[in-house]
Amino acid sequence: MRLTNHLNQLRRVLVLGIALVMMFIPMGGALTAPDDHAGPAPSVGLVCETDPNATFTLSALPGYISMADGNTIFMWSYGVGRDDFQFPGPVLCVNEGQTVTIVLHNDLPVPTSMVFPGQVGVMANGVPSAAQFDGSGKLTSLAQTVAPGGSITYSFVASRPGTFLYQSGTNPGIQVQMGLHGALVVRPALGANFAYNDPETEFDPEDEYLMMLGEIDPLLHQAIERGETFDMRNYKARYFLINGRTFPDTLAPNYASWLPTQPYGSLAHIYPYDPVTNPLPALSRYIGVGTEIYPFHPHAFNSDIIGRDGFPVKGPGGENLWEEKFSIPIGPVQTTDALWSWRDTENWSDTNPVPIDIPSDQNLTFGLFWGGTPYLGNTDTLPTGTTTFNQCGEFYHIAHNHALQQITGWGVVLIGQVTFTRIDPPLPNNCP
Ligand SMILES: [Cu+2]
Fold first, then answer.
1. Is domain 10-344+398-423 annotated with CATH 2.60.40.420?
2. Is the pLDDT assigned to residue 251 strictly greater than 70?
3. Radius of gyration (Cα) for the chain, nearest Å?
4. Tens digit of pLDDT for each residue in 313-371?
């Protein structure tokens, strides 16, 4: 499809979906971080669960989440401590070289376990974590299980930095789909502002984002809630999520009060690249927790792919082999680290206008984020009766899965894997 067609199609989709957006766009709403966080969580960006000794208590719990079409989905996921169901599980952030200890309580009605793809030497209750087989040699679990009501302790040394995930190792086709998964971030010895032990991987710690892409077959979840079996040959994902939310909830702040069990937003909120005042890129940590490869792409910039599955993208001589990508394919159980910035390449402004005649407002179709001019930091009068959520001439660009059936939710257009990048004019600005 030609780019202009694609853009026109997206523009139509956006106009259709914009009525949904206007109900949810974050306007600086109050945040309530959970009690177990040391301070208030940032309204956007990665939210870390940390502990000085890298020791965490998690519970595998049942709970509910809501979809943007109003549906409610029964889930299994992880909560911090002995309750506090949340989906996805908490982002565990640890330092390279630390011994990570996770005490898992099983409050589900079935045996479960945890596996840590990319980690080596994982211990379960003091013995090596290992696949389990029944008497006839049939695989029953990828790790030792913990019975309902019981607990188990995992430990491993976080031996290398990167983006990883943890998930259920027992009946994963059901349990991972039910929601038993979360992110693990290992900070390099070089420092928390670096993705890897490489000075070139420095990022702006205010611009670190989790992008966990997953999916839900609601009929599977309904069957599990009812205690029925589910024939996986009938599996068909209907909802597609970023960080456990559907669009436009993806834009809502972290810990939005109206999404009490879905704490993680995915709106990226940045300033334009500037070699002096804003030289460092943003870091997005992508994780696939679905069943297929999602071709994700943020509009308006390319991303440098600097790591995959917790390995820096380097050649045999240690040279960086970063790929500059527009579309970023994210496969199941795969992680991808991407550095990016937004550049005001042409510096269009009132005094450096775009070299075309801009149609009058009456001849434009514009969304609720239009500030009245095409210039960053500018606003202008809009036609009487127009609603705008533009605050200070900031820009919004869509970031979405390019498998367009996966930006839907059970047939409803534009409630799938979609989020936005918000670009504010450089400081000082008039933005709230
Ligand atoms: Cu696109």
1. yes
2. yes
3. 22
4. 999 999 999 999 999 999 999 999 999 999 999 999 999 999 999 888 888 888 889 99
First-to-last C-alpha distance (Å) of the chain: 39
Q: Residue 39: which pLDDT band, with cuts at 50, 70 and 90? A: low
Tens-digit pLDDT profile for residues 194-232? 999 999 999 999 999 999 999 999 999 999 999 999 999
CA 299 / ligand 1 centre spacing (Å): 6
Determine the distance separating the centroid of ligand 1 and the alpha carbon of 297, expressed in angstroms.
6
* pLDDT (0 to 100) of residue 291: 95
Distance from residue 408's CA to the centre of ligand 1 (Å): 14
Q: How far is the CA of 404 from the centre of ligand 1 (A)?
A: 9
Distance of CA 419 to the CA centre of its chain: 10
- For residue 105, report the distance from its CA to the centre of ligand 1, in Å: 42
Find, among 273, 244, 272, the residue nearest to 259 by Cα.
244
pTM of the predicted structure, to 2 decimals? 0.91
Indicate if the alpha-carbon torsion angle 287, 289, 294, 300 is positive or negative.
negative
DSSP calls for 53-92? T-EEEEEEEEEEEE-TTS-EEEEEEEEETTS-B-SS---E
Residue 220 dihedral angles phi and psi, to the nearest 5°: -60, -45
13 alpha carbon – ligand 1 mean position (Å): 11
Give me ligand 1 centre to Cα 284, in Å.
Answer: 17
Phi-psi region of 230 (alpha: psi -120 to 50; beta: other; left: phi over 0): beta
Ligand 1: distance of its center to the CA of 7 in Å? Answer: 7
CA-wise closest residue to 10 among 430, 400, 416, 406: 400
Tell me how far the alpha carbon of residue 178 lies from the centroid of ligand 1, in angstroms. 29
CA of 221 to the centre of ligand 1 (A): 30
Q: Which of 91, 45, 4 is nearest to 283 (CA)?
A: 45
The pair of structure tokens assigned to 83 is: 């309750």
Q: Compute, in angstroms, the gap from residue 392 CA to the centroid of ligand 1.
A: 25
Distance of CA 98 to the CA centre of its chain: 25
In the reported structure, the alpha carbon of residue 2 is separated from the centroid of ligand 1 by a whole-number distance in angstroms of: 12
Q: How remote is the CA of residue 25 from the centroid of ligand 1, in Å?
A: 20
CA–centroid distance, residue 378 to ligand 1 (Å): 25
Omega prior to 88 cis, within 30 of 0:
yes
Tell me the per-residue pLDDT of 148-163, one tens digit each, with 9 for 90 and over: 999 999 999 999 999 9
Ligand 1 geometric centre to CA of 1 (Å): 11
